[in-house]
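Recap from last week: sequence in, structure out.
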Amino acid sequence: MSRKTRATQKNFKVFCEGSTEHHYVDEMRRQKKLIITLKSVNMEGGGYRNFLEQVQTDGTTNCLAKFIIIDGDRAIAEEGEKKNLQELLDYCILQNKNGRIPHFLIVNYPDFEYIACLHTPKYKGKDVAQYLIKELGYKSADEFKADKNIYHSLNSGGNSYEHMMSLLKAENCFVVNNYSLNKKLYEIKVTTTYDWEKLGRKGSNINEFFEVVTGFNP
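Predicted structure tokens:
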């Protein structure tokens, strides 16, 4: 009797810099039964360059796409980081042009804390740090960042990532990944564009992450 072969599952790889993003995506993966491999990147001492090095050296076996989720404020606040971000952009664009593993660069501006606030209907552009404490009930920004239940907090009681996505505006996005999905062939094609004049506008293209990973969900 021939032995049954087990189908290999393709997975998404998500590279993120903060514990908040890690906890969020990790719980989302469990709740929605997504095939995601999480990669935390230490930004200390290297910034965006650390992302580039880890993405470059990470394997691609059975990888459907890579998502690199970063905060954009570093490119404005820290000298030299704009150049490092450009190098990361160039690398992602090259992979997509060559038809290799799709690379989605996701830039949250100013940071993921702002994107978290957009999950809640009550947020109307207030100071993010104060909103986390007064409205979301955290004692400090550090407590918010350490919350392992952050996905549940931001996706219950009327809060949701769908609400956040409804508030994002394409005209404010520093990076846009135009993509097409072929679920039958497990194929994603991506074309990446960016505009430095838009870096500094509050917003994100993180909607692409939600759309793509849930788009392949059985």
